[in-house]
Amino acid sequence: MAIDESPIGSIGALSAATRGIAGPGEVVLKIRGGTETYIAWSARPLARGTIVLVTADRGFRSVEVETLDPLDFLVTDLTPTDPPA
Fold it and tell me: What's the total number of domains in the chain?
């Protein structure tokens, strides 16, 4: 991974709760071949341990996050397929 890799799109867990507009928390991200801690801002308070997605980079190791629904990762193709020939 490149040294200047953007954290946008990274998934992490909050190591310190966010307080919405009242203040940030912290998120641990797997990035650049290791783990790094960033200041995490969110629109609403989020509990410690919440799995989040980084949606914006605020600069100076500060990011905006939102909750991530684990079901977003399930991909189910319900389209009928043709039987093998």
Answer: 1
Beta-sheet pairing, 25-31 with 62-67: unpaired
Query: How confident is the model over 5-64, as pLDDT tens digits?
Result: 889 999 999 999 999 999 999 999 998 888 999 999 999 999 999 999 999 999 999 999
Tokens of 59: 């600069």
Tokens of 83: 């039987």
Residue 31's pLDDT is what? 87
CATH number assigned to the domain comprising residue 61? 2.40.50.140
Q: Containing domain of residue 33, as a range?
A: 11-69
The structure tokens listed for 42 are: 């969110």
Cα(29)–Cα(43) distance, integer angstroms: 19
**In 10 A of CB 82, how many CB atoms?**
5
